[in-house]
Amino acid sequence: TLVTTTEMLQDAYQNNYAIGAFGAHNLEVIKAIIAGAEKEGVPVILQTTASTYKYVEMSYMIALAKAAAEQAKVPVALHLDHGESFKVVMECLRAGYTSVMIDGSHLPFEENIQLVKKVVEAANAINIPVEAELGTIGGVEDDLQVDEQNAFFTDPELAERFVKETGIQSFAPAFGTAHGKYKQEPKLQFELLEEIHRVTNLPLVMHGASGVSEASVRKSLQYGIAKVNFSTELKDLFAEQLRAFFLENPNENDPRKYFLPAREALIELVQQKIVMLQK
Ligand code: 13P
Ligand code: ZN
Ligand code: NA
């Protein structure tokens, strides 16, 4: 069965490592994520935005994630990434997601708090943990687009209030990462992260980890980062592999053949990311 992210994140947080959370877009990708986690023997988070579960269809999404969790030799959670409304969160809770993010980061501070509080009350009532974001993480994530110029770092004082008043289980700060690719290696604000870590005392989440160097990811583990989100690098690799396959084999029509190299490559990438997150 799918587990919640509560215990895995607490353990990671207490012991200075992180859980990988990977964008789960379809069957092949889900199987690759699970296989990678199994090879490394660590818990893993399958995560989807609302647009992904709409694409896959909710009943399929849940069935796939449950089947994965049933067979996997490691704990598996299904997490809603960047939930944009109370309604979207409710849909996921009802369907069987075991962890949710509510993203009110575009709202004024007090409105963000009110929305997150409401979500925490509903989700925690059935023991589902909640992640929330304050500040703005730049870049593009599905329907969400934030100009990097308009990305604001999280204010630690506000973070402290936000965490206290909302009662969330994990916190996503803006400290220099962005969704999607980077024009150059981002300069992460580690002093800021350290301060946020000190005042929030909660597992922290790194968004936008595609394109962040191994050194920076590893350094962040010292400052409370306990969940690391990867999406773009997986999508890029999967697409690259398919393109390469069809260039070599323009007449192949069997999905059981053309998906295979992409899936194999993805397993290795997931393993590589997971290894990066260990102590
Ligand atoms: P990347 O696409 O940069 O890996 O970001 C993923 C993410 O933060 C999902 O919420
Ligand atoms: Zn994100
Ligand atoms: Na990124």
From TrEMBL:
Q: What is this protein called?
A: Class II fructose-bisphosphate aldolase
The answer on whether this UniProt entry bears the keyword Membrane reads no
Required cofactor names? Zn(2+)
Instruction: Give me the residues that bind Zn(2+) 1, please.
Output: H82, H179, H207
In this protein, the active site sits at D81
Record's Gene3D superfamilies?
Aldolase class I (3.20.20.70)
NCBIfam families this protein is in? Answer: cbbA
Q: List the Pfam families.
A: F_bP_aldolase (PF01116)
Q: Any note on cofactor binding? A: Binds 2 Zn(2+) ions per subunit. One is catalytic and the other provides a structural contribution.
